[in-house]
Amino acid sequence: xxxxxxxxxxxxxxxxxxxxxxxxxxxxxxxxxxxxxxxxxxxxxxxxxxxxxxxxxxxxxxxxxxxxxxxxxxxxxxxxxxxxxxxxxxxxxxxxxxxxxxxxxxxxxxxxxxxxxxxxxxxxxxxxxxxxxxxxxxxxxxxxxxxxxxxxxxxxxxxxxxxxxxxxxxxxxxxxxxxxxxxxxxxxxxxxxxxxxxxxxxxxxxxxxxxxxxxxxxxxxxxxxxxxxxxxxxxxxxxxxxxxxxxxxxxxxxxxxxxxxxxxxxxxxxxxxxxxxxxxxxxxxxxxxxxxxxxxxxxxxxxxxxxxxxxxxxxxxxx
Length: 319
Ligand code: UT7
Known about the structure:
2 domains; Peroxisomal Thiolase, Chain A, domain 1; acyltransferase; FabH; EC 2.3.1.180
C-alpha cells in the first residue's frame, strides 16, 4: 500500500440565473446556430449581485463535505483555484474557510486560469502525500461574467460562472491520484489575458483572447499531456474509463479524443450546459458524472485542462 490522495466526496454549485444563446443574441451580433456549431455551448449560468466566487465555492465545498460524510472541522487544507477572486486579497480560500467555520487550517488560492484546478489538485496531492495535511478541500470557482467584455461577441458567448469541489483524503491505498503533470509556457501570455490588474492599470480589466490560436495550441498540448500522465501512471488509453476535460469547446474535446484514439462515449461533456467556467469546469463536470452514476468507484479517470499563460496539465486517478 502507498500513501495516496483519494477523492472522498465531490460537490458543485451554479448561480441561479441561466442565460441561453438566444438571450445573448439580443445583446450582441450572434446567433444560437453560430454558438452551437463553433462551440457546442447552449446555456451558461451567470452570478447575480448576491453571488460571488467565494459564495459559489462555499456552496460547492459544503456539498463535497456532505458527499464525503466528513465534518468541516476535519479539513486541514483548502486550495482554491480561481482567476476571479472576490477581492485582490484576502484569498477566496480564507473566505471559504471562514464561511465553513473552520478555526485553523492551511488555506490559499492558486492561479493558473483554466488549468487552475489541475494545479490546485496537484499541490494538494503533494501536501497530503508529504504528510503536511490529511484532508483537503480542492476547489475550482469562477465568476468570469465579471471580467467579460459584453460588447465582444467573440468572447462573451463562451464563458459561464460556477464552482466545483473535492474532498481529498490521505489514505494507504492503491487507488486515488496516480499521477499529475503540469506545464506552463509564458511566451503565449498575449493570446489569452485580462487587460487590467492591481499592479498595472489599477482596474480589474476585461478578458481578451485570440481564440483561433488558443484552439490550435489546445489540441496539441492536451493530447501530449494526457499521454504523459498516462505513461507516468503506468496506464494505457485502453484502460481509461472516463476523460473529464476542461470544458472550453466541444470541438476541442472531440479533436483531443480523436488524436488519442479515445471513444467520444468516454468523454464527459458539460460545455453545452455550463459553457467555459475556467477553473471550475473540471470539478463541475466530475461532480456531474459522479452524481449521475457514470463514474463509479474503481474507474480509471483522467482530468485535463489548458488555459491562459499558457498553462496546461492532467491528472490520472482511480476513483
Ligand atoms: O479556456 C481557455 C481555453 N480557451 C479555448 O480553448 C478557446 C479556444 N478557441 C475557440 O474555442 C474558438 O477559436 C472560438 C469558439 C473562440 C472561435 O471559433 P473559430 O472557429 O476559431 O472562429 P474565429 O474566431 O476564427 O471567427 C470566425 C468568424 C469571424 O468572422 P469573419 O472574420 O470570418 O467574418 C468572427 O468575427 O466568426 C465571427 N464570430 C462570430 N460570429 C457570430 C466570432 N464570434 C462570433 C459570434 N457570433 N459570437
